[in-house]
Amino acid sequence: MLTMILRRIFLGLATISIVSLIIFAGVEILPGDACTQYLEQDQADVELLEKCRDDLNLNRPAHERYTEWALGALTGDLGMSVNGEAKISDLVGARFANSLLLAFFALLVGVPLAMLLGVITGLWRDRKPDIIFSTIAIFAMTIPEFVSATLLILVFSVWLGWLPGIVLTSAGSPISEFFPEILLPVIVLSLVMTAHVMRMVRSSVIEVMASDYVQMATLKGVPYWQMVFRHALPNALLPAINVVALTIAWLLGGVVVIEVVFNYPGLGRMMIDAISDRDLPVVQAIALIVASIYVCINLTADLMTMIANPKLRTMYLRK
Amino acid sequence: MKKLLTATGVILAMTVTSVMAAPSGTFRQAHELGFGSSSSLDPISKGRVFQITEKIMSRLVRPDTTGKPSADLAVSWSANSDATEWTFKLREGVKFHDGSSFGSEDVLYSINRVLDPEIKSPARSALKMIDKVEAVDESTVKFSLSTPFADMPLQLMDYRIRMIPEGSGDTIAMTGIGTGPFKLVKFDAEGVTKLVANMDYYEGAPGVAEMEIIGIGDGQARVQALLGGQIDFENTVTNLQRPMFENSPKFTLTAVPTGNWRGLVFRTDQEPFTDVRVRQAVRMAADRNELVQLVMGGGGVVACDTPVKPDDQYRAAIECPQDIEGAKKLLADAGYPNGIDVEVYVATLEPTWPKLAEAYQQQAARAGIRVTIKQVPSDGFWKEAWMKKTVAATRWNERPADQALHEIYLSTAKWNESFYKDEGFDALLGKARRELDFDKRKALYVQAQEHLHQTAGTLIPYHVTKLYALNSRVKNFDMVVNEAIRWHKITVE
After folding, report:
1. For a FRET experiment, which of A128, A182, A195, A209 has its CA 20 to 30 Å from that of A148?
2. Residue B241 domain-assigned (yes or no)
3. Do B225 and A263 touch (CB under 8 A)?
4. Domain that holds residue B354
């Protein structure tokens, strides 16, 4: 068990370092740099450009800069932002907390709702509740977030005037100041994510309900609801852990579109701003953080599934 | 007796406030967050948040609602006979927000800061003709110029050149102390910046009690905030967004002409555009009215290759209808009876360029000008296409007439993008700068623009119109160019 966990952690670290290389290379390939951006509008001149590149250390060979960056990142030093002339770790901190806040509320609403609806639609398969909720879910999944976001803003803030349309609070503000502005983004995010998780839970409930042991239990005369709660659901909800984990990773990575539409000061919007400002150190840092989040959460989810599922656990043990 | 006096004082104070109608309500506006966390309140820095500095700091001279120089912190001005020395009389009794009084030393300090090469202010180019500033007395300053400059007050109207207290350069970015109608309470570039009415403002107390200037980077988000009533005013509304405000009683939508223009540059030092007839032909082939409709959705004012903005006092009234036959004939005369092939370089960094090039392609084809559109990545455009390729798209933001003509067309200008060299034109501009009589000066600038329309290599089909959308609860709002809005006048319901 322990060696298995260690191996997974090692694999995770390897993934992150490969990702870091790819990120760095990708950013290198991009045309233009912080200096061309900084000096752009009023038609940069070559001398100024060279001076700016010297100042920002952009003239050194790529591999040197990569090593320095990667070593720094290991110790938590993500470098300096080009534009704000501030430490990236300081900038990212507040933004990340905000993305966390958004994710937390979206999960708080979305996960229980998705589980409940998934079980309902699974148990009442092809009957009215299933048809209604599944159809809504398909809409929620297929309509792009920026469309549903814009529609909700139109209805709730422009027509009805119940909720503020966009977030005006700045990154470092206390949590309480994000209310009620955070409500619309939370609703949009929970919509999308409830739909995904619900469909996953639904199919796994259907699968389990059709399995041999459930039929066996039914034949043995176990009362329906007892059978559902004691035998079917624990098994049916297991696969959901992985979907929920992926959703969490998706949420924490800064839901770029949502954050831009609602002007929400999270990691995603920071990334977009940094890209348009050619603030490459910030772009790299955020990409690395998001990649690490994905790896960590997937790792945790896999371990949790294994702990919860004796079959998987023993399979590894026997090896 | 003392009691009676105090009582009368109180009553008097009450009557005075009730007559003057105390400021009330909050006006909210967004800013574009162009410089993220390096945004600053230093009016001459690159990261200045103009939407804030314009309300807390004043200029020496500001445009009146028609764009002409009018008194602000300077009440009057005069020049010597050859326009190389300008004397400005300052307003007396003005106090900065921190209580210190405003005087000639502050002007010297503020102007010298703009001119200081170490500070690298982008505003420096507007004042580069200034050689020396001196204080004549507490309320008079004298500018000595290196060249004659008849329109010095226009230069001082630049939206960035605002007066700050002497010696405040190191702190101004955060304190924002000025003499404007509003005072800074809290500066938060990425969040909500709060301002409060300056009751001692020299043109009378403002109409609104508070202002909130909010950082919203995304244009679409700003429009949503406006629609949802989170902000009151937005001036970056696009033509596509027009219908959202146009017929709504909740909003007033006004088109305000600007001096910003987009166009195509045909380099006058490269074949076939070395021939003035070819340059005329390529410009004659354009149907400018149609371009305004097709490219800008009607949001523009036709220009006849003059960079001077439509409502500028020096704008030349030129007519330039499309003339296909004329263009064909000119091309034939120049030795191209079968027309010419042109490669036009564009990029999406200016979203209207590709549309402009396509529309022009259709129009010019009729005159035998075969246009091929080359789209290059935005990042490399300024470096690799503009001023490099024979024909490329260009864009310029508003400048005073003299500055626009100089910076874009003077033989020696650094950004003479069309490599236009014309001694007659240069001489006209020099003469205009020395001419103190307004009408004669205007005639010279008009002549210079007409000369451009005859000979230049730059097609300037239109000036862009800005759409201002305003929540109807805001009253007394000047629907004029941003720099001329009198912020102390507005009130909110």
Report:
1. A128
2. no
3. yes
4. 258-465
